[in-house]
Amino acid sequence: MANRVLIGTRNSQEGIYVSRPGKNVLTCTDDELIFKMDDGASGTIKGLYQLQPITGTASTATTSISAGATATISISNFSWTNGVVPYALGSVGSGSTGGSNSASMGFTIGTVSTSSISITNNLSSGSFSLTLAASPVMFAGALF
Amino acid sequence: MANRVLIDSNGIKVSKPGQNVLTATNQNLIFDSSKVRTGQIYAGGTNLNLGDSSSNFLTTSSKANLGYIPLVCISEKNNGNKTFNSGTGWISDISSWEFTSSTIQPVSFEPDPPNSGGTSGMDSAHINDGRNYTSISSANEDATNVNYVVLRIPCAYGYMTSTYFG
Question: For residue A10, what are the domain limits?
Fold first, then answer.
């Protein structure tokens, strides 16, 4: 069986490393690691992608938004220092959805804070329903 | 308190809060070393106003190209779908993107369905860089307030193989 877990030195940097099944953590490439700490190389890993369940008002359930309306959906404060990244999916609920070259469901994500996310239905008629999830903003810088 | 961390001859497992790592099902684990890929964040961007332009996620710290097109999770201001040609076609999400091994690019998808002749009439279907849908204003389609993370997970035709997951 290959060495899979290393708590020690790799590429001259101490840390914790876990390799894929069948890969030797001592000799494998960075891409063959499923967990690593910063080893100072160009392949720095910034963090692990994780989603937080939202327990605020109706945010894990469906929220219906009428034409032209804005809904402010409350979320728990997860103490994410850099803010919240919202992910929204929707489906058409009622009203006119067709038409030539028209947006049948258009919505914009507005102000996002650590306590709420606002969503606006841009259409002149017809409602739709949304579900939301959220993840933390990993870094404050534009690119990381 | 539930047992949360397991280190044994099979590797490492970590369970969600409140879940016993000794008995937890896969969905209740937040780390499992038996899996070949995890959501390691390689790069990303925060609150970018790209308009119709691409973003190169390798520029910061001169990151090395991963050698594959990665899975990218994106959130942006403008969302929704679009019908066209009197309802004969439908684009499920105007928040469309093209991914390469170094960039994300907002795009417009124009499927151009034929009035007759089946798929043979779809010769004008295309994807254009930038968002330029008819009847949708730039303010409602441009890539604005874009947050994204690039995960060290291959996600494209030709890369979902044992070469990258073995």
Answer: 1-47
- Which residues on chain B are in Cβ contact (under 8 Å) with A1? 9
Give the CB-side neighbour count of residue A104, counting CA atoms within 13 A. Answer: 25
A102 near B CB under 8 A = yes
Contact A103 B37 (CB under 8 A): no
Check whether B136 has a pLDDT greater than 80: yes
Residue A89 lies in a domain: yes
User: Nearest Cα to A125, choosing from A56, A66, A74, A77?
Assistant: A66
> Among A55, B149, A98, A28, which residue's Cα sits nearest to residue A17?
A28
Co-location of A76 and A41 in the same domain: no
Strand order across the beta sheet in which A13-19 lies: A5-10, A13-19, A33-35
CB nearest A144 (choices: B43, B62, B79): B43
Residue-wise pLDDT for A60-80, tens only, equals 567 788 888 998 888 776 777
Q: Do residue A132 and residue A68 come from a single domain?
A: yes
Convert the pLDDT of each residue in A81-132 to its tens digit.
888 888 877 665 554 444 445 555 678 899 988 888 898 988 777 777 777 7
Tell me, yes or no, whether A39 and A70 share the same domain. no
Number of domains within chain A: 2
pLDDT tens track for B17-33 = 899 999 999 888 889 99
- Minimum distance, in Å, between the CA of residue A86 and any CA atom of chain B: 6
Q: Tell me if A107 is assigned to some domain.
A: yes
Residue B69's Cβ-count burial label (10 Å; 0-12, 13-18, 19+) is middle
**A42: which DSSP letter?**
T
Residues in chain A within 8 Å Cβ distance of B140: 103, 106, 108, 122
Taking the CA of residue B120 and the nearest CA in chain A, the distance in Å comes to 23
Q: Does A94 fall in a domain?
A: yes
State whether A41 and A95 are in the same domain.
no
Q: How distant is the Cα of B3 from the closest Cα of chain A, in angstroms?
A: 20
